[in-house]
Amino acid sequence: MKDIEVIEDPQVAEVSLDPMRSRILEALVEPASAATVAGRIGAPRQKVNYHLKALESAGLVELVEERRKGNMTERVMQSSAGSYLISPLALASMAPKPEKYTDRFSAFWMLALAGRLVQEVGKLIAGAVAARKPLATFAIDAELSFASARDRAEFAQELSAVVDSLVEKYHDAGTPGARRHRLVLALHPELKKGAEAAAPASGIADTVDADKEQDHE
Q1: What is the rounded CA–CA span in Å between residue 41 and residue 34?
Q2: Are 16 and 86 in contact (CB under 8 A)?
Q3: Using only C-alpha atoms, what is the Rg of the chain?
Q4: SS (H, E, C) 99-134
Q5: What is the largest CA-CA distance in the chain?
Q6: Calpha distance 148→43 (Å, rounded)
Q7: Are strands 72-79 and 32-33 parallel, antiparallel or unpaired?
Q8: pLDDT, tens only, 57-113
Q9: How wide is the angle at C-alpha 189 spanned by C-alphas 184 and 193, nearest 5°?
Q10: What is this structure's pTM?
Q11: Fewer Cβ atoms within 10 Å of its own Cβ: the N or the C terminal residue of the chain?
């Protein structure tokens, strides 16, 4: 079972978004039969079987083993991944395009970058799994507080300068076959406790992007 599976097919995305099927996928993080799943989520077995067939056809659940129980064969299933993420490719024609936005302080540009990140890293993971090779990635997730908007702006400027300096120092455009990488940094306000998706009145987000390397395979 994969840790995370990125869904690119719109039909598979549609299957996964059904509330009952989402509950079944969650229940099948550990292998179980339809009867066991029905007990876990409090739904009729017949209804669970119906949704299991759709999930299996979409490749979201997999057969682990078959057990003989009297005159019947019990099928033990498991989710194909522990978690799922829907790629912008599932809505390819409507997916946000980073090149459409030019303001690095735009929250919409941040979302477009995040969407591209999901899309590209999802493909890289799939390729690495198929090739049975490790995928070299690096990420930082930190929380910090600013005493004022001015401090936040100065932090963004200093961070940009440091990243620009590092990119200039390590970027090698002359070595044949050098592997290109993409670097993205993002800064945004933390959601308040209990806030579903409320945006701060002063602005949805601030971003700092160091997208100096433009391509990876």
Answers
A1: 11
A2: yes
A3: 22
A4: HHCCCCCCHHHHHHHHHHHHHHHHHHHHHHHHHCCC
A5: 73
A6: 52
A7: antiparallel
A8: 999 999 999 988 778 888 999 999 999 999 988 988 888 888 888 788 889 999 999
A9: 130
A10: 0.74
A11: C
- Of the candidates 18, 20, 60, the one whose C-alpha atom is nearest the C-alpha of residue 40 is 20
pLDDT at 197: 47
What is d(CA 165, CA 210) in angstroms, rounded to the nearest whole number?
11
The tokens for 36 are: 């066991």
pLDDT band at 201, cuts 50/70/90?
Answer: very low
Cα atoms found within 13 Å of the Cα of residue 129, Cβ hemisphere only: 12
Q: What are the beta bridge partners of residue 69? A: 72
Contacts of 129 (CB under 8 A, 6+ apart): 2
